[in-house]
Structure formats: structure tokens, C-alpha cells
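Q: Here's a chain of 700 amino acids. Please give me its 3D structure as C-alpha cells.
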Amino acid sequence: MKNDKKVELKKDVVKSNVVAKYKTNPLQSVGIKLFLYIMGGILACVITMGTLAYNQSKGIIEGKASESSQQIVNQLGANLDNILKTYEEITLQLMVDNEFHKSVDVVVANEDEFSKFESIKALTTKLQSFIFGNASITGIALIPLDSNLNIITAGSSQLTKVERLAKEEWIQEAIDAAGRAVWLPSSPEAITHAGTTPSFGIARVIKNPTSSKAYYVLLLDVSTKGIQEQIDNVNLGSDSGISIVNSNNEYMTNADPKLVQSVAPFQINVDEEEKSTRETLSGIGEVLLIHKKLGYSDWYLTGQIPVNELVKDTVVIRQLTVSVAIAAAVIAIIISAIVMLTISRPLVQLRNLMNEGAKGDLTVRSKNNKRKDEIGQLSNSFDSMMIQITSLATQTKISADAVMVTAKTLTNASNKTAVSAKEIAIATEEIANGSTSLAVEAERGNDLTVMINDQMRQVLSANQEMVQSAYEVESASGKGTAYMAELIEKTGMTEEMTREMVEKVDSLKDSTRSIVQILDVLNAVTKQTNILSLNATIEAARAGTAGRGFMVVANEIRGLADQSTQSIDVVAQITDRIQSEIVETVEVLSKAYPMFQEQINSVKEANSIFVSVQGQMNHLISRLEDVTQSVNKLEASQTVLNEAMTNVSAVAQQSSATSEEVASLSNEQLSISDNLVTLSTELNEVSTKLKDSLAQFKVE
């Protein structure tokens, strides 16, 4: 009863909170939501269309500017290629000039100082003529590859500075190029003299047309001023810039001479000869980067155009978008006001009527039911709902009176049923306790039987493992006996071979003694030959001129005798060493022979032990088989006992379960009886309360 009162109080609080919320929070109003939806939708469409138009026009302008700038850069690159081609042709003219090569040959020959002086003068004049013909060439130098040759310069080139250039790495590059032009990177100052204007160089190795031997490296020192003037004549737009960089992104030319040889802030793609990309540079922002590879060097002509300058005219579209968005906001406010008057106000009125009905006034009706739209249909539905609720409340009041009478009768019957259920529950509980005790004892007997069965299986498994191990030991003993017999046979053969080896070594010892005797005889013969050769030499000396030939023969015989003596000594030493080793071998074999005999005796004893072990294992196997049969019989008996205990346990458990089920049903019946009493009491209270609640509604 108290719980029902709490639930009703909570419902009343919730209703009052809902009503207060609708009255105090304007953001929950349908009119405000419609206003926000209409405003947001119109503004989103206007802003989206304006943004798309702005971005599209910006992309089109940027694409057209990129194509136009790429054409300008390509045209400028073609002009610069012609200029670089002129410099390369100057070096090529010197390569094919016969007079130039003749003068170089005279300087290299270094035979006549006057001729050498005239040739150097002619070379200087030749080089100077090229400088006069092109104002961008500030100096020309012939750098010798041999330190004995003279350095030849023209124009503003300084001898001391050119001497230092001979140690640069590009000299070897020019030699490896084998007559092709090598382009040197730009320098912040002149290469061959003390000028402050940045310059770059072109180098070629000078070879003799006949021998193709290299003597000089030709170097043109070209000022970047002429190229920079060509670049300055081209304008890609406000705040744009054009420069030349190498493959390492180092400036070759720039409007600011101080930036020459410094690394550019952008990165070009050296794999493509010409390309337009968009990059963000530090301190500058987004730029359109355009580059083209020059044809006569590994340099790239690059142009940088700020994107903001390209698309500055598209700001008008953005401003127009803002103006249209403001106008759309005003239109959205007007439309929202109309929607609030035609939709939101009737909904607010209908909400207030529903709040009155929630408070208990079922006589309220809507005044907007004459409209033909959804608002009118909703008002009609509200009126129909209130009529049905009024009818339902009247019928419920009548039913509540009838329920009160039925609840009193049900309460009396429930009290009598509860008393009977209590008595049945007590008797059933006593039966269940006895069945439970029997089941517990049967379960304990079953557990003991299962434990004994497991132990018997372990014993049987261990017995089988012992039988298997006994068979394996017996098999191993048989193999060991066979191996021992084979070992006895091989040991006997080894003993026989050792005995034969001792006899052969003794025979070899006797043969060595015979060799020593033969060497003694040869030594005596050699001595006699030496004496005979000495006598022959003496006789030949007495014979004078007639005995010279005989003296030569005597000398040869004595030489052969000396060689024979040396050879006999060497053979004697070898024979002594062999005889000594034979004696040592005989001693070792004499010591090893008794050990072989002892080994044979040990092997025979081990063989007898294996035979004895094999016999004992046969006896053990027969005994284990008897034990296995006894254990199998015991296991069968244990299985029968285990089945009997299982049946007893199952019967006890079934009996206990049945008793418990009956007890549970009795308790459940008792609980149901108590619940019936309680429900009857509550039904009486609810009926009274329902009657009081219906009295609050105004139905007439």
C-alpha cells in the first residue's frame, strides 16, 4: 500500500515537472526548433553554394594562371638555352680551331722560348677576341694538366686565382668528360678574378687532334648578369620571382646576388623536365611553383607565384556569398514567424489542454478541430481520446466496487488454504531429509568404489609396463650376447693381426740390418774409388799435356765418388732412423699384445653375464604374466561392485530428489497460499484506492 502511494506521488511529481518544463524552457518549443531548422537549412545551402563557387572559380583561375606561367617559363627557358648554347659553341670553336691547336702544340713542345712566347701571345689574342665578342664572358683561362706548362689567361682572369683552380675537383670531371662541356655551378663572385658579380663556368679538356693527349682545360668565366637581365624582363605577376637552381636545389641565379649558391626554400622534382606544383613555403605561404629543365646544363628555370595574388579577384564571390547569407537569414526569420503562428501556437494550446486533462479535468475540449490540416486532425483525435478516457473512468469505478466484494471472499479462502499447506510442508520436509541422508551414504560408497577401481587400473597399467620393460631387457640381453660374440671374434682376429705384425716388423728389422751391411760395402767401394781417382790425378799431372784429358776424367770420377759418399751417408741416416722406429714399433706391439689378451678375457666374462641376465629376465616375465592374470580377475570383480554401488546411489538420489521435489511443491503451495492472502488484502486496498482515485475525475 505504501509502495503504491510512493509510485503515485512520483507520477504526480513527474507530471508537474513536465508541465513546468514546457512552460519555462523555450528551447523545447516546436516553433523555436522549426525556426532553427529553417534558418540552418537556408544558410547551409547559401554558404555551401557560395563556397563551392568560390573554390571552383579559384581552381579555374589558378589552373589558367599555371598554364600561362608554364608557357612563359618555357619560352624564357628556350631563350636561356640559346644563350647557353652560344657559350658552349664558343668552347667548341676553340676545340676545332687548327691555329689554336698549333699554338698549344708549340707551348707544349717548349723547345724555343721565342716561339713559345709568340704562341702564348697568339693564344691570348685568340681568347681575348671571344671576350670582346661577348660582354658576359669576363675571363678565359687555359689551366695546364702538367705543372711544367704555363697558365694562359685572357680578360680579367688573375693568375693567382687560376692557379688555385687547378686543384678543384671539376678538373677531373672535365678530363673524364673526354671533350664534352662541363658546366660549373655559380659562385657568389667571379671564378677567375676578383670581381663581385656572380658567375658560372664552362670547362672543356683540350686534346691534341693527332695523339688525343690532354694538355689543357679550357675554362670560360661567364657572368650571370646577362642571364639575370633576361629573367628580369619577364614578369609572372605581383610578388612573383624567377630563378635558376641546380639539381641540388641551390640557386644558380637570383635577383638577390647574395642568395647564389644557397639552398632554395622549395623542392623541385628533378625526374620531370617541366611541371607545375603547389607548395607552402616558410614565411611566404602557398605558392605556385613552376619549373623547366634547361637543355644545355643540369639546371632548372623556376618560377614562384603567390597563390593569394592569383585568386585575389575571387574575394568578390566570397563577399557576395556573405550578402546572400544575410538576406537568406532575414527571409528565414519571416518564414519562421509564419510557421510559429500557424503551427506552434495551436500546438501550445493543445499541450495546455492535455495538462488540464492530466490534472483530472476530463471535460476539456479543443477549439481547433475545424481546421482541415494535421493540426485539426490532431485536435479531433484529442477530443476523441478525452471522450474515451471519460467512459473508461466511469466503467472502472463500477468495476472497482465489484472487485472489493470479491477480494473479501478470496481473503477468507486463502487463510484456510495456508493452514493446510503448512502441515503438508512439514511432513514432506521430514521425508526429504531421510532420503537425502541415504543418498549421501550411497554416494560415499560409490566414491570409494571408484577410487579402488582407479587404483586397480593403475596397478594393472604398471604391471603391463613392467612386462613390456622385461621383454625389452630380454631383447637387449640377446642383442648384447650377439654383440659380445661378434666382439670376441673380432678381438681374436685383431690379436692374430697384431701377432703377424710383430713377425713382419722383426723381418723388416733383419732386412734393415742387411741394408746397413750393403751401405758399408758401398762406402768402402766409394773410398777405393776416391783413392783411385786421386792416383789417376797424380799420374795425369806427371804426364803433362798428354794427361789433361785423363785428369778431367779422374776429376769427374772423384766428384762422383764424393756424391756417392754423400748419398750413402744420407741413406745411412734414413736407415738408422727407420731401424730406430722399427725397434720402437716392436716395443709398442709387445706391450699391446698382453692388453689384447686381457680384453678377450673381459669380453668373454661380459658375455657370460649377459647370458645369465637373459635367463633371469625370462623367469621374471613368466612371474609378471601370472600377476597380470590375477589383477585382471580382481579388476572384473571390482567392476561388478562398482556397478552395484552406482545403482544403489542412483536409487537413493532418485528417492531424495523425489522427496525434495515434493517438499518443494509443498513449500511452493504454502508460499502461494501466503501470497493469496497477501494479494487478497492488497486487492482490497487497491479497490478502495481505485475508487478514491476515480472520484477525482470530473466526468459530467
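Q: Can you summarize the key feature?
A: The two ends are 30 Å apart (CA to CA).
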